[in-house]
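Narrative of accomplishments. A recurring question from our advisory board has been how the design workflow behaves on a single, concrete structure rather than in aggregate. To address it, we present the structure tokens for one chain from the evaluation set, followed by the sequence designed for it. No filtering or post-editing was applied between the two.
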């Protein structure tokens, strides 16, 4: 029987290949039938992972393939919006598009015009939502804290990895580090707090990484560290601490949420393939609950299926994301990460970068590229 979800994939670099490995674990409902990947090395790697797929020479040719029923965009960041526009004009199938949705503040209104009334599920890939320890925190945090007043997300990790054509070394391609990397965390802030931001203050820059690299005579301008403080509409405060020269840390992400009843934390290890063998087994994700009364923190391990850990660098989340997307495509569930969610995540990253450059707080209620300035917050963007 033919699988109901037959993917055409645009872009099979590092992240695209992670998607290929995870889709392969869903062989009862999903398969990859067509691929467009212009880079020879990445195309060969994709062919080894999906030998049954048909390879096309352009997005146009891919969209003309009659066998596909859904699309995945995993191309470089600056191509996402134009490719969505091409799909919308040609064949608006269900789409799972990698973050970020756009990379230039001027594109915000183009996004709004594009995604209004998209006739099929349009899902923005925010893998961090589906990491098991993060998902556990999201489920339990309101009850355990009594209502969050302070939320902190810390990522201490390795520098940006090499990508095809070194596209991720420059802000003009990536949107900047606080968009490219941190839109995940701004999305988590809105998800965990169930609220929208109103004000952002930030400090960040490039201190250690990529300073001696040169590409066609240019020095990379991507940042490697930042602090970001976000005020939310109902009074909660959130903070992001990013450091991309801290790969010696035991855990890569640490999230803490605090309210009048207590504190909840989750600790997420980085990719197992980077854990030094001489240190033994990689750490296991944890959820830690610290009530105010009776005082006494307790922790629990949240292990992830080893097959899912081997399939990618995101603590098993890519697999769970594809399961949810498949349910939406088949009409069994609604889209969980909408275009509006993806837009907010990018706008928050752009505002943080603007704040760090200007030294001034950015009011998102007046920002020309934030959803609140373009459409009502409740507007239904698929």
């Amino acid at each position: 029987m033919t699988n109901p979800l037959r993917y055409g994939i645009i872009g099979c670099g590092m992240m695209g290949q992670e998607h290929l490995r995870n889709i392969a674990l869903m062989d009862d409902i999903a398969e990859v039938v067509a691929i467009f990947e212009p880079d020879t090395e990445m195309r060969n790697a994709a062919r080894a992972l999906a030998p049954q797929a048909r390879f096309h020479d352009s997005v146009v040719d891919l969209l003309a393939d009659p066998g596909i029923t859904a699309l995945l965009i995993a191309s470089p960041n600056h191509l996402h919006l134009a490719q969505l526009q091409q799909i919308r004009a040609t064949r608006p199938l269900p789409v799972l598009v990698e973050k970020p949705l756009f990379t230039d503040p001027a594109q915000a209104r183009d996004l709004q015009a594009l995604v209004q009334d998209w006739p099929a599920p349009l899902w923005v890939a925010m893998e961090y939502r589906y990491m098991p320890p993060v998902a556990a925190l999201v489920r339990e945090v309101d009850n355990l804290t009594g209502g969050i007043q302070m939320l902190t997300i810390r990522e201490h990790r390795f520098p940006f990895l090499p990508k095809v054509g070194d596209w991720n070394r420059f802000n003009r391609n990536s949107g900047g580090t606080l968009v490219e990397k941190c839109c995940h965390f701004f999305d988590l802030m809105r998800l965990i707090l169930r609220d929208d931001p109103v004000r952002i203050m930030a400090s960040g820059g490039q201190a250690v990484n990529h300073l001696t690299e040169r590409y066609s005579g240019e020095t990379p301008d991507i940042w490697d560290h930042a602090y970001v403080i976000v005020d939310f509409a109902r009074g909660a405060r959130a903070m992001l601490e990013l450091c991309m020269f801290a790969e010696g840390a035991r855990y890569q992400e640490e999230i803490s949420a605090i309210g009048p009843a207590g504190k909840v934390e989750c600790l997420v290890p980085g990719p197992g393939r980077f854990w030094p063998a001489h240190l033994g087994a990689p750490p296991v994700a944890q959820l830690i609950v610290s009530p105010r009364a009776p005082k006494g923190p307790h922790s629990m391990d949240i292990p992830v299926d080893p097959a899912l850990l081997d399939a990618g660098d995101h603590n098993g989340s890519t697999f769970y994301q594809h399961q949810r997307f498949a349910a939406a495509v088949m009409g069994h569930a609604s889209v969980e990460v909408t275009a509006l969610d993806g837009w907010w995540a990018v706008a928050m990253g752009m505002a943080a970068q603007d704040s760090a450059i200007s030294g001034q707080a950015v009011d998102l209620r007046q920002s020309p590229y934030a959803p609140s300035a373009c459409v009502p917050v409740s507007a239904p963007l698929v």
